[in-house]
Amino acid sequence: MTNGRVLRHHVPEDWRRGLAVVAHPDDLEFGASSAIARWTAQGKTVVDLLVTRGEAGIESMPPERTAAVRSAEQVAAAGIVGVDEVEFLAHPDGTVEYGIALRRDVARAIRRHRPDVIISLNFRECFNNGALNHADHRAVGAALIDAARDAANRWVFPELLDEGLQPWSGVRCAMFSSSPEAEHFVDITAHLDRGVESLAAHEMYLGNLAGGFDPEQFLRRQAADAGRRAGVPLAVAFEVVPL
């Protein structure tokens, strides 16, 4: 099942700095990384912010080892699409909670990096194929939207002022890949190969998925479907939330 919604609008690209905020290593690579490859090729700067280290993601490995492996895979995957800076907040994988602590951590990152846009993964209850979304994704998406507002208000989290972090009101929008509410798209026809290579960098994680997994087949099918709905060969679909 795929979402039949027509993608009517191109994602705005008149920005310079993006902050990609997701719950787990691989969240960006399953959705937005081909678009990030396009944007860094344009000279834009994107920083990755991972809320967890994905330590609960491989059943056959203890969490401490999994965290180290998946963090390293994320850094490698980011570099393939032109992202040189990757940060981890170390919230607990699988039990991320929407709340003050998460909002504060994301607001802190927004004030430090001062992005024009935020890039993330679907936070709706289901994905665009009807599959139930992960609780961590839902919590992170809601928190980052509120954190963008928090980052702009000097009287919310005044302790950030004590850290030398001045308010930042320059976040224009948040863009969520794989959302059933997507109406925007990015043409990735020239950039899908880098997206595939980036997802394949999560070698240990993908190798432990039941039944095997083909990054090329998965991303190409997804990109072709979005491209059909956007009127281009290959695309990534985004829900764009103005902020």
UniProtKB/TrEMBL annotation:
Gene Ontology terms describing biological process: glycoside metabolic process
Pfam families: PIG-L
Alphabetical list of InterPro entries matching this protein: GlcNAc_PI_deacetylase-related (IPR003737), LmbE-like_dom_sf (IPR024078)
Signal peptide from the UniProt entry: none
GO MF annotations, alphabetized: hydrolase activity, acting on carbon-nitrogen (but not peptide) bonds, in linear amides
Alphabetic keyword roster: Zinc
Listed name of the protein: PIG-L family deacetylase
Organism: Streptomyces cupreus
Lineage, opening ranks: Bacteria, Bacillati, Actinomycetota, Actinomycetes, Kitasatosporales
